[in-house]
Amino acid sequence: xxxxxxxxxxxxxxxLLNLSLRQTGRSINTESLGSIVxxxxxxxxxxxxxxxxxxxxxxxxxxxxxxxxxLTYAAVTAIAMxxxxxVSVALQIETISATRAIGLALIVTGILVSAMA
Length: 117
Hints:
Elements: H1 3-27, H2 33-42, H3 44-66, H4 69-90, H5 98-116
Helix pairs in contact: 1-3, 1-4, 3-4, 4-5
C-alpha cells in the first residue's frame, strides 16, 4: 500500500471518527460524570468511534513507517479538515463562508507544496 493510500485511509477514518464523536456527544447525558461514563459505555456511537479510532491509528502508524511524520500528520489533518467540512456542509450540519473556503484552499496548497519539497 502506498503512503498516500494510507494517508487517505487515515483521513477518512478521522472524518468518520469526528462525525461519530459528534453523534456520541449528542446521545449521552452530561449532567454528571457517572452518566457520561454510563452513556459512553452503552452508546453505539461511542463504539463506532472506537472502531474508527483504531482504523485511524493503524493507518497513521503504517504511513509514518514509510513517510515523514511531519508531512503525514499535516496531510492527514488537512485532508480530514477539508473532508469533514465538505461532509458537514453536504449534511447541512454547518455552512461555509468564502473566508473559510479560502483558508481551506491555502491549507491544501501548503500540503501540496510541502509534498513536492
